[in-house]
Amino acid sequence: MAFDRRTFIGTTAATGAAVALAGAASTPASAAAGVQDAKAKGPRTYAFTVMGTTDLHGNVFNWDYFTDKEFDDKAHNDVGLAKISTLVEQVRAEKGRRNTLLIDAGDTIQGTQLSYYYAKVDPITARRGPVHPMAQAMNAIGYDAAALGNHEFNYGIPVLRKFEEQCDFPLLGANALDAKTLKPAFAPYSMHKLRTPCGRDVKVAVLGLTNPGIALWDKANVQGKMTFPGLEEQAAKYVPRLRSMGADVVIVSAHSGSSGTSSYGDQLPYIENAAALVAEQVPGIDAILVGHAHTEIPEYRVKNKATGKDVVLSEPLKWGQRLTLFDFELVWEKGRWSVAKVAAKVLNSNTVAEDAKITRLLSDEHRKVVAYVNQVIGTSTQAMSSAEGPVKDVPIIDLINHVQAETVKAALAGSQWAALPVLSQASCFSRTAAIPAGQVTIRDAAGLYPFENTMEARLLTGAQLKDYLEYSARYFVRTAPGDAVDPAKLTNAEGIPDYNYDAVYGLVYDIDIAQPAGSRISGLSFQGKAVDPAAQFVLAVNNYRASGGGNFPHVPQAKQLWSNSDEIRNTIVQWVKAKGTIDPAQFASVDWRLTRAGVPVFQAVSAQ
């Protein structure tokens, strides 16, 4: 569906929902807030605040559906829109509601079992289906606009369109284009009017930009339907247009990190984390709400090359753990408003209680999902934990790989590829995942794979697999023989996340962490024999990796032998249901280990 700009002044194309050329409702506290008396000497001024969230990932409640208890981490962060709502109401009470806006930078409808349930189990796309919990919560809180994130496309465009229809605010994506017409498929921007007691009203433009990596990561859902040009390119097109339309302030909501890096290498001509580049290269932007990177940046200033002015960036921490505040000070000069000052900071959601308005609103949905994830689907002969998964070949990761390999073998049965050996890749996606001894629930099995990835089978040679493993082994910090080993400091070299370290199931190999990256894999064998560089193997691989995520070599270009549209975690759940019993003795083995000069860094692990 292409977006016709002519229909946008006041409405979104897809939903017809009113957007903010109308200002927020007035409150008694807002009447005098931030505005110098029009009769006073000197310039007239106006202050307002833009609040921002990002990477909410389906979190409404301060609850972890995989552990079935209140969310907590080492820093004692809290999560969820119910917490954010309390912070938002506090800011509105202090600043005056008419002097505030609330926006989001994307990745909203994927990430928790709550969001999964209303996409797959009781889908919002069904005839007379429910309203998505994230739409209900964000509508109740009063969001003004939200950018599209890459994970918005995980469940397919129909689910995203239904979510868009259910929102009382526009979903923005200036670089999400219809593949045929190359016109915006979603509203590129929204305009918001803030009414002031003096001078003319302030017009605030919010430009939404999403991540070009969608074209790779969700290729199955968007290929031939949508295309995603670079953030800088589209910002350069729209910012002057917004200024010509009378925008006094231009804010970008960008689902793109600030680092200038990409996880997909040179497969696309666009940068994944381009927010700082947009600030530097495109004049006319006052502030950027940053998303996607899951980092906390209270305030980051980037000087625009053309104007020399600072652009203020801020990224609140993921899942509703933080709320960004952009505080603007404007001055009326020469018949127009101009920005005199911008500052940013973040508020911590663990300082407040959940808003009862939001928890009451979605209590039924929460109870349904808790009951769903606690369904018993099988038993396990012993407990398994992922705690040591980043540094040891543990049975719980073998379980993921075993399910994937079995699934691919069954899919290729009877084909010309049926005789080839099937290997599998997996990462330690969560260091807290666990399978208990005894009864196993949906949440136990699904917790092994918190992402919505699907599975593919790709054809690789022995030489290519060696390259793949060498690239993966960059994850470990180089540690000389004899040096003390602290497992907590041994991983994530160069900032590589856990999900970008792959273990390959079906091969045996050592990773010598005393060697430099690129020269660490030794003893690579298959069924007791050294791997022939020319031999062919089938690799069961997730769609993120197959599409170039993490920039691993060879796989994106490798021949695709099979693909599946079902989430891997659902495949795991169905496998447990079918087997009835999980017995690590049937699939667990220590096939890779960390060494230094041939000496193992750790002793072999048990099934525990």
From TrEMBL:
Q: Residues in domain Calcineurin-like phosphoesterase? A: 49-295
Q: Does the keyword Repressor apply?
A: no
Q: Which residues form the signal peptide?
A: 1-31
Q: Has UniProt tagged this entry with the keyword Glycosyltransferase?
A: no
Q: Which cofactor does it need?
A: a divalent metal cation
Extract the CDD domains matched here: MPP_CpdB_N
Gene3D superfamilies, alphabetically?
3.60.21.10, 5'-Nucleotidase, C-terminal domain (3.90.780.10)
Q: Which UniProt keywords apply?
A: Hydrolase, Metal-binding, Multifunctional enzyme, Nucleotide-binding, Signal
Localization per Swiss-Prot or TrEMBL: Cell envelope
Query: Which Pfam families does the annotation name?
Result: 5_nucleotid_C, Metallophos
What does the record give as the reaction this protein catalyses? a nucleoside 2',3'-cyclic phosphate + H2O = a nucleoside 3'-phosphate + H(+); a ribonucleoside 3'-phosphate + H2O = a ribonucleoside + phosphate
- The primary location reported for this protein is other
Using the record's annotation, list all stretches that form the 5'-Nucleotidase C-terminal domain.
Answer: 376-555
- Taxonomically, which superkingdom? Bacteria
Family membership, please give it: Belongs to the 5'-nucleotidase family.
What is this protein identified as?
A: Bifunctional metallophosphatase/5'-nucleotidase
